[in-house]
Specification:
21% strand; alpha+beta; 3-stranded antiparallel beta sheet
Length: 238
């Protein structure tokens, strides 16, 4: 395996000199109001902090083998990647390289198998269905902003490690159609074409049924041009 299999500029992710290894009662109404507000707040999960009691799934060789078998049963061609861990906290463990998954996806590096499986199902099942339903054409290529990238959330210094830093996320930017059209999240989400808007929203909604966290243009300005999917702490769909 080489660094290109992992993506995200792996060779530049670790600070110079670091070592690599392989294998986060003054008013009677006030108490009642606080209870209501607290309950409502509990119904609105935050993408910035893990939900209470949430822990990442335990990765074992057996679970990895089962995941690989499930991917192949979906018709995907994948290559298992050796685990990589870095002293700055980033890692790509139980990860795969998606060689062929029905529709070519650009710019993908390592993807944790647990995120690759719902992504393959989204690509193979949801994308073709919604493209025909809303646009009357086939998607022949999906453009991504990548998967594994060693960085904090939103690329903001001081934030916790992004799920991209664990190879546990994928960012999707655009779709190329057989009829020549290019549908981008940036231009289409709030564009004038109602069919394009419907297509993108349908794909976003379908992803919410497959991934723990789904972010799009309505989440915040940083996601104005792509969908973010990950299998970290959730559920959160926006």
């Amino acid at each position: 395996m080489n660094a290109a299999d992992y993506g995200g500029g792996v060779s530049s992710l670790v600070p110079a000199g670091s070592r690599r290894r392989f294998p986060l009662r003054r008013h009677r109404l006030l108490p009642g109001l606080l209870v209501v507000l607290t309950a409502l707040a509990g119904c609105i999960p935050s993408p910035r902090a893990p939900r209470r009691g949430w822990t990442p799934p335990i990765e074992t060789p057996e679970r990895f083998r089962q995941c690989l078998a499930a991917l192949r049963a979906e018709g995907a061609q994948v290559e298992a990647l050796a685990d990589r861990r870095f002293d700055n906290g980033c890692s790509a463990t139980s990860a795969v390289k998606l060689v062929a998954i029905g529709i070519p996806v650009t710019n993908l590096g390592a993807v944790k198998c647990g995120a690759a499986l719902p992504f393959v199902r989204w690509v193979r099942q949801d994308v073709p269905t919604m493209a025909q339903r809303w646009l009357g054409s086939d998607v022949v290529r999906i453009e991504s902003f990548g998967s594994f990238a060693c960085r904090p959330v939103n690329n903001q210094a001081g934030n916790r490690l992004s799920e991209h830093g664990r190879a546990n996320a994928v960012d999707i930017a655009a779709f190329r159609l057989r009829d020549g059209r290019r549908i981008s999240v940036r231009d289409g989400w709030n564009g004038d074409d109602q069919q394009v808007r419907g297509f993108l929203r349908a794909l976003h909604k379908a992803a919410c049924g497959r991934f723990s966290v789904v972010l799009g243009p309505d989440a915040n300005a940083l996601h104005h041009d792509h969908f973010h999917f990950d299998m970290g702490s959730g559920p959160y769909c926006r």
